[in-house]
User: Which sequence fits this backbone?
């Protein structure tokens, strides 16, 4: 059903921040319709809540960071992907540190916590960003393209000059069941040769084989191996789902990405929003015994031209 969703019950959990290397306590709370995803730093008593939207992005180096007057929250993409994957539109996220816990490096534990809190349907229709004309963003040989479609599809290709990773491609069509089965458990990954460089520059202080797939020239260092033969590209799809959620509304279109990362994902969203003639804000309404997209004229998260 095309109605907004939140969770029925508050839920608490904790974990290590990938980059800060410290324990983070997290509380997820239900929120009314049209709230969106709100992050609140409870370790900073006078801080303002920050909505997870494009306008609040402050960095895309290795992860997505949002902030508001010095109250940044880093590595939000896996939690955002889990919320998108379960169709949750409205939630309050409280945390006592500047980073979301990495947990096992995927979104599966977020999904499990959210399902334990139970999804609650609300009485207000979802709004969607529906692609009407092609949109292209590129940087060097990397690109993201969007094409009209009546559903949400991602086709992603990665290409690493590495014998274990190499080139991987996957075309995936969104559904709640498919997200849980095929995408949410794909873990973040890195090359062993990059680990010390990252730590020397203040990143990955909490990284370990418990929360990332680590690869060297001889193979996978994690004893359990991979969860999917193409786990690397599946994780990139997970990241992209999380970043696309910063539109504030689910996207409907065919997204094709090649070697993209957080910064290019963010640039794609900026380009999309600046090209008003290539997309439309829509609701799904019931008419003549079927559900169909109908133009919507208001969004709590987007600035729309009057003639859109």
Assistant:
């Amino acid at each position: 059903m095309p109605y907004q969703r939140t969770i029925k019950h508050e839920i608490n959990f904790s974990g290590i921040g990938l980059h800060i290397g410290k324990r983070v306590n997290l509380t997820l709370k239900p929120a009314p319709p049209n709230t969106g995803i709100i992050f609140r730093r409870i370790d900073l008593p006078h801080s303002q809540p920050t909505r997870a939207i494009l306008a609040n992005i402050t960095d895309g180096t290795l992860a997505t960071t949002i902030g508001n007057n010095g109250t940044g929250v880093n590595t939000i993409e896996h939690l955002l992907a889990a919320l998108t994957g379960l169709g949750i539109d409205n939630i309050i996220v409280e945390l006592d540190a500047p980073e979301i816990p990495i947990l096992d490096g995927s979104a599966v534990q977020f999904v499990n916590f959210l399902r334990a809190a139970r999804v609650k349907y609300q009485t207000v229709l979802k709004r969607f960003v529906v692609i009407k004309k092609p949109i292209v963003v590129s940087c060097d040989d990397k690109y993201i393209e969007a094409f009209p479609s009546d559903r949400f599809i991602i086709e992603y290709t990665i290409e690493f000059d590495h014998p274990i990773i190499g080139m991987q491609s996957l075309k995936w069509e969104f559904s709640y069941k498919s997200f849980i089965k095929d995408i949410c458990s794909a873990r973040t990954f890195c090359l062993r040769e990059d680990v010390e460089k990252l730590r020397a520059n203040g990143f990955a202080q909490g990284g370990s084989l418990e929360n990332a797939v680590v690869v060297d020239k001889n193979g996978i260092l994690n004893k359990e191996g991979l969860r999917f033969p193409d786990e690397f590209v599946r994780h990139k799809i997970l990241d992209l789902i999380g970043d696309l959620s910063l539109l504030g509304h689910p996207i409907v279109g065919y997204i094709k990405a090649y070697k993209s990362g957080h910064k290019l994902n963010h640039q794609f969203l900026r380009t999309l929003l600046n090209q008003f003639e290539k997309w439309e804000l829509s609701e799904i309404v019931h008419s003549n015994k079927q559900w169909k997209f109908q133009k919507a004229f208001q969004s709590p998260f987007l600035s729309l031209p009057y003639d859109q």
Notes: The CA atoms of residues 276 and 305 lie 8 Å apart. Residues 128-295 form a domain with the lpxc deacetylase, domain 1 fold (CATH 3.30.1700.10). DSSP finds six helices and 20 strands in the chain. The chain has two domains: 3-126, 128-295.
